Structure formats: C-alpha cells, structure tokens
Amino acid sequence: MTWRQQSPINLHATIRADAPKDYLRLSWSAAVDGFRRDSDHGVAVNFGVTPDKYLELDEKRYHLHQFHFHHPSEHLLDAKTFDAEVHFVHQHLDDLSLAVVGIFLTVDMSLKETKETTALAESFLLAKDAATPVPLKPAWWLPEKRDRIFRYEGSLTTEPYTESVSWIVLPEPKAISPELFKAIFGSHPHEARAIQPHDRRYILDLAVKMVLVK
Fold it and tell me: pTM for the complete prediction?
C-alpha cells in the first residue's frame, strides 16, 4: 500500500488563518478514571466510552479513547525537537475516524512539585496493571497558552499507520517536573517515529479560541 498522509511531520505554517467560532471544543475538565497499559511503545492510559469526555472539531464529535507518550517528541516545530509529546486519541463512534491532540512536553528542572503533580507521578508508578484505575484530569496536560493550533490530516504513528487521523498539535509546550518525566519514561523506551514527508499537504496554522466545556 502506498501511503500519502503519514505522521509525524515537521510543522510549519503553509496557511495562516483565524478558526471559525467554536471550531475546537474540549470536554476535558472533570477527572475521569483511566487504566494504565504497558506495551512496547511505553505507557498508555485507556478509557471506556465516557459520553462527557470528548473533542468537537468543526462540529464533529470524537470521544476520548486513550492517551500515550513519545520520547523525544514525534512532531517537530520548525525543525525543533521537544523532550516528549503526549497524544490524546479520540474516536468518532460512527465512522471510527480519529482526532488526536498532540501536546509537546518540556522538562523544567526548576519547576516546583505540587500535591497534584506528586500524586500524578505516583499514579503512574503505582498503577502497574490494567485493573487499577488512574484518576486523571485530561485538562491538566494543556499548556497555559492555547490560542493557536496546527491542523493537518495524517496517520497513526504506530502500526498499522492508518490514514484516518485529524491532527491538532499545540505549538506551546506543557512544562513538567523531572519527577513526573521519570515516572512516565523511566522504564520504557517510548520511541518516536521518524519524520514523514509532507506530500503537498496543507498545514493550517490557526488562531483559535479553544472552548473548555465544564
């Protein structure tokens, strides 16, 4: 099979524009139980079908399915690599298409620990099996500045590399503590896939007012 829209890519704007009103809505605010899964690709957290956890992209709704990590970042931003990247995978319940939010992670050695970050690190260390729930608040992973996104059509970055993914990547990174970084990546390789060609795809650099649904 010949692939034409593979991910990840080096992100740089080919089209700059303002997103329409309510273009991107995230229902991520409240905590939800996820279940840790360890695989060759590292730590992932899976969720059941939760009606109140979803992403709406251009009026199409995708439900939160799982999130996982890559170290170093898979996407590049103007050829820059970040310490890591987290992918929040959402799936449409009818056509099974995917929408993935990619967030860059940077390790801030000066970042002070809080009760929340300590508890988050401990949850990744202690939840060693698929039956142990990890209470998580997806919105915690969002950076403070989120008024700009990159949009493009791509693929999964692990096998089978299916090309049915609407990508949303935030250029502003989320700073995490060394403790949390070690908890997530300490015992796993979390390999990143090589950068793929653009193949004449348009990359949208959108100014957006992201709506967080409570």
Answer: 0.93
Q: Cα–Cα distance between 87 and 68 in angstroms, integer?
A: 5
Taking a C-beta distance cutoff of 8 angstroms, is the pair 55, 166 a contact?
A: no
Indicate the domain borders of the chain: 10-212
**Are 138 and 28 a contacting pair, CB within 8 Å?**
yes
Is residue 170 packed enough to be buried (19+ CB in 10 Å), middle (13-18) or exposed (0-12)?
Answer: buried
The pair of structure tokens assigned to 214 is 């409570």
Residue 4, H or E segment: none
Q: What angle in degrees, to the nearest 10, is found between the helix axes of 115-126 and 178-185?
A: 10
Mean per-residue pLDDT pooled into runs of 10, the chain (214 residues): 88 92 93 80 80 93 93 96 96 95 94 74 66 81 95 94 95 92 78 90 95 88
Are 69 and 169 a contacting pair, CB within 8 Å? no
Looking at domain 10-212, does it have CATH number 3.30.450.20?
Answer: no
